[in-house]
Amino acid sequence: MQARNRLQAKRARHDTREWQVKRRERTRQLIELGGLIAKADLVELTGDDRAVIFGLLIEAAATLRGEARERQLLLWHRRGRRAFADGDLQPPATAIWRTDDR
Questions:
Q1: Could you say which of 9, 40, 47, 62 is the most buried, measured as most Cβ atoms within 10 Å of its Cβ?
Q2: What is the pLDDT of residues 30-74, one digit of tens each?
Q3: Given pLDDT bands bounded at 50, 70 and 90, which one contains residue 98?
Q4: Among residues 87, 82, 61, which one has the least CA distance to residue 102?
Q5: Do 77 and 102 contact (CB within 8 A), yes or no?
Q6: Which pTM was predicted?
Q7: Residues 6+ apart with CB under 8 A from 15
Q8: Secondary structure of the chain in the HEC alphabet?
Q9: 102 Cβ contact list (under 8 Å, min separation 6)
């Protein structure tokens, strides 16, 4: 029974069908984004209130739809880069970062 389960797990890890690969990529992206939310202490600061966290994200999206989009992106980009550089936060190894520092 255990051998069969190990074989099935091994096959699943090496499944290269296009839909499976895309699903794994999306899962990894969602995990990384959740990790950023946790690293920003939003979970602790909000008492793990998902509605508050979602509200924060909606507010950020609304800001990005406004006239100050570029200025706000620049500000957030710099803050994020500084946080990673301070050593408290490390960017995910698979993330693609801009080479310009804006």
A1: 40
A2: 999 999 999 999 999 999 999 999 999 999 999 999 999 999 999
A3: very low
A4: 82
A5: yes
A6: 0.64
A7: 21
A8: CHHHHHHHHHHHHCCCCHHHHHHHHHHHHHHHHHHHHHHCCHHHHCCCCHHHHHHHHHHHHHHHHCCCHHHHHHHHHHHHHHHHHCCCCCCCCCCCCCCCCC
A9: 74, 77, 78
